[in-house]
Amino acid sequence: MSKSNLSKYKIVFLGEQNVGKTSLITRFMYDTFDSTYAATIGIDFLSKTMYLDDKTVRLQLWDTAGQERFRSLIPSYIRDSHVAVIVYDVSSKKSFELLDKWIEDVKIERGENVIICIVGNKNDLTDERQVSLQDGEAKAKAHGAKIFLETSSKLGYNVKSLFKKIAKTLPEFEAAGKSGEEGASEMIDINVENTTTQDGQCQC
Amino acid sequence: MNNSSSDNAPRDHQKAVRSPLGRSNSIGIFRSSKRNSIISKSQSPLHHKPPTGNEEDTTSHLGIALNAPIHSNLSTDSVNQIPRNGSVISAGSKSHNGSPPGIFDSASLDSEVIPGNIHISSNKSIDHLIKRYGAVSLIRQLSTDLAQRDAEITILRRKNSIRENILIRLLNETGLSTNEVESMLRDRLNSTQSSDDQASLLETLMEDAMSEHLESYSYEHQHDIATRSLMNLSVASPVDSLNYDNNNEDLFKTVTSKELKRRPHSSSLPPDPRSVSASTTNHPSTNSEQLNHSITDNSSSQSLLNLVSNRFLNQIVPQNLQDALSGSTGYHNSRPYNNNLPIPVEMENLATTASTDIQSFGESSANEGKGYINAFGFIYDKNKDSAKKPTVSTRTGPSRPTSVSLDSMGFTSKLLSIANDHDNNQKQGLKQWEDFLKKLALMSSNPYTESTELLAVNGESIKAHKHLFKEFEKIVITQGIPMKYRPKIWYELSNVKYLSTPGEYYQLINSTLPNKESEKQIELDIYRTMPFNIYFKDNNSPGLMKLQNILIAFARKYPEIGYCQGMNFIVANLLIVYANNEEETFWVFVGLVIEKLPCEFFQLSNIRRDLEKLPMIFAKNLPKLWKHLQRLEVELELICFNWFISLFSESLPTEIVLKIWDLVMVNGYVELFKVTVALFKVFEAQLLGFGSCMEVYDFMKNLNKVNVNLKGFELIKLSSKVGIDDELDFNK
After folding, report:
1. What average pLDDT does this structure show over B75-104?
2. Chain A contact for B386, CB < 8 A?
3. How many Cβ contacts (< 8 angstroms) between chains A and B?
4. CB B552 within 8 A of CB B517
5. How far is Cα B191 from Cα B196, in angstroms, rounded to an integer?
6. Distance (Å) from the C-alpha of residue A178 to the closest C-alpha of chain B?
7. I need a labelling partner for B55 at 20 to 30 A (CA). Which of B293, B449, B539, B694 fits?
8. Torsion over CA: B213, B214, B215, B219 (sign)
């Protein structure tokens, strides 16, 4: 394995507590979902090789703790990241409002040298929704986020697309990304049934 | 998986949905059967509610009843006010309404809420019940029963331990030291069982476990049978329902003798490992028959593994002693399982956990056919390999039939090798420990009066005797502290005697002003601590409320420290060691944080500053590796921060974590640095082979994964050799 010539990208996951950062990563990594995860303390690290458009990249996923107390640690994790995925919970207005703070943190540390993704997770909780899709889109636009998506780690909804989109914004793919938007891309290791129903009714 | 996620959905998103059902609704079928609640009948007669006349009597057994979830006010309060498990504590700590929660609030014992023989009702009528009152109500009711029994057992346990102490004191007065009493007891108990038979049994078990075809095993099948068997339980053993007369001593006697009388006639073997081991001691001759029976019946390696591993657990903790002294044998044996089919684990584990003796940590049968539960209560979920915990996750399961055989076999052999290692280590280690403790006892000028402390000479801690302390330290490093002594020794080492104030803990829980910010966080985190551990899994898990209470009490006692993520993992592990004894766990945690860690450890800035000292220590102890890591631009903080903040409990297998804590209890904070270096040392060769910092992170941050072969003893030995310069002062 000549791992060394793989391009590596560092992706940090940020956001308030319990918005589902770990569950997004777990869904992507293992295609599983648990109703409960151990709280992330400090910082967790996982890496995954992703195949897309005949190219291979290695993604380093940094999962961060949500507790306020750990906030002071996070800048050093953001420092050399390529992508910052900032997650909120569509059923928590508060987590949405605090997005601004996270985005600011990222910009302070990385300026414009980072791809900002905004993700509204738990989109399956239709009855408890407090943040509309439009509000999310508006905020993403306002902050110049390159990617905005609503996801549901529980249903696997949009998780695959999120990482696909992220990959396509990476320098490695920027050129190729324009040629084949949907058809050419193929990821292995991911068998998520990509639920297209927007209402995301719980299938359980 | 779909089922479970739907069940847990509300909690998952922290939108705890409380049932709108009013508690005042009675559940019709229960009405006439107040004294035959499902759990008590199928598991233990101890569960029966004492008659109201004896309430006061029960209450007077110290405040310890608070220790366990007790159901109260169920009929009067709305469900909303009883957050989970009907626990008084939770109600108290959440609502802070000023009124002290009753211990056994007799007013609440409305006959209407005591459930009855659901287990013998037809499916139809259960369906009907669910339709009418909602599954939530029913489940809540059942868990209430469990909680209630938990409380009663706690009282019994405390009472028994008091009795034990008094008895030992009496013996001491006649001129026997505590250690002598214990070793004599053990010898006496050991001689009643033929060790040869046990050894050969183990061999048979191992052989069978190794050779069995694992593919034939069907989880659904077992689950199905298990459910049915539960339904049949009371039909199978109606004779066993004993009347609870609130006289605990008598109760134990009755139960034990009854059980012993009955057992020889039960030809079949329940897969409950504890019952198995119990019958092993009593009737070795029937074992092989029972064994075969179990194999053919379940066509399952599960039960075999359970048997084997239980054997191994019995080795770790000489259970006889504990049982003999605490009277808990009666409890365990009393469970009327004369059924040859598996029992759903949840019930069983809740029942055994409640009894909080160490045996309750024994390996149990599968959780709804999903996986194993290890010695520390972690569920090895066979359907996932994503989880950080379980530390050993195998890939088997109905969904991936092709990998079943291989991985299960891997698991089997791993389990067996652990068992062997343990057998050997424990035997040797225990001997050394006993010799050492005996020596200490004999050094006292009057060894017979000073009986309560293990590590003391004439009532003075061994820390005052340099050479003794050195010797002690050496045994800790070479042998580890045996499970048997660990709780007591940690208790002494963390200076609980001087830190604790009787009653303060419950006062903190019940009346002190809340530390709101911390408590919100705690409530969020208790579910996210050990979601794969049977004791902390969900609302019905026995450890969850205790975990919350301890964290809350700590945040209230030390508002300047408050609550920091990481504490939850530490306390959960302590609860496992202290067999769910809440108050003891709290004080040991206080001792650990206050006495052993630097004063601003959980304020984080402190840790980061100290982590900056790591490079120096690395350069000194691992010059070659350190150069390599520097070249790869590895930032140690990214790896080690998690290790420190949770004292490794999130990052390593539990048994190793406990060994590390042994060291921390003896020498404090500095051990964290030594273990850190030792961990890198253990994997030096691998690390040197890595070509990027990412590989290093990937490896070092996932050490609790199944493929990492890490031996606790090796690690501890290495860490004892790590040199740390004196100028690096880690003391406060």
Report:
1. 38
2. yes
3. 126
4. no
5. 11
6. 29
7. B539
8. positive
Best of B1, B13, B692 to disrupt the A interface by mutation (most A CBs within 10 Å)?
Answer: B13
What is the reported pLDDT for B706? 59
Span B213-251, pLDDT tens digits: 554 444 444 444 444 444 444 333 333 333 333 333 433
- Residue B108 is inside which H or E element, if any? none
Q: Which two tokens stand for residue B590?
A: 């206080």
> What is the rounded distance in angstroms from the CA atom of residue B360 to the CA atom of residue B469?
33
Contact A38 B529 (CB under 8 A): yes
Write out pLDDT tens, residues B110-132. 444 445 667 777 788 888 888 88
Q: What is the DSSP string of B434-503?
A: HHHHHHHHHHSSSTTT--S-SSEETTEEGGGSHHHHHHHHHHHHHH---TTTHHHHHHHHTTHHHH--TT
The two three-digit tokens of residue B337, written as one number: 């399982």
pLDDT band at B346 (very low <50, low <70, confident <90, very high): very low
Alpha-carbon dihedral angle through residues B631, B635, B636, B642, given to the nearest 10 degrees: -150
> Does any CB of chain A come closer than 8 Å to the CB of residue B446?
no
DSSP 3-state of A52? strand
Put simply, whether the predicted model's pTM sits higher than 0.95 gets the answer: no
A204 contacts B11? CB cut-off 8 A = no
- Give contacts of B641 with chain A, Cβ < 8 Å: 42-43, 73
**Mean pLDDT across chain B, nearest whole number?**
65
State CA B27 to chain mean position distance.
Answer: 33
Strand, helix or coil for residue A94: helix
ipTM of the complex: 0.81
